[in-house]
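Bench notes, afternoon.
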Amino acid sequence: MINSKGFASQPLKTSVLAALIFFSASGMAAAQQAAPGGYPKVTGYVGLLHPIVTFSADKPHYNFDGAYTVGLPTGINLWKSQHTGFSMEFVPTIRATGGTSKMSNFCFHPGVLFGLGKGWVAAARAAFETSGRYGFTPVLNKTVIKGNHLSMFAAVPIPVRFGNDQPATLTIGFQFGVTF
């Protein structure tokens, strides 16, 4: 509305300004071209990680041998192309023994992803654990069921850890989960 001095009222100015911002933003979004193949893209995942056997200077230690350990990895993948990406993974670990359970560790697991084709992905991750251990984890991952919005995967992580006045260890695990 125009007031007696010939100026638009505040609600009208606000509405016109909001409309200009909306149409400008929607025009800029429409003008942007998606990169070939939909990249860059972001995916997330959740899963279950079961360590199978851990090797160190001592004898091998098997999961379920006196205790059960499970990890609950959750992560975000930032794919630059179908061949390369960056991943941030967070893994709380729960250990059950003697009728009780507790969160025994938390791992921050950043890394690089390499798309190998046909649903295969290799990951190279650094590892920083609240237990005082650190190291790296190579992972081989395969999409086993591909859906439009969700996919299921299986992976074999091989964590290598050092530090905290303990011998170096190498673990072989099995992980499965859902990506979205």
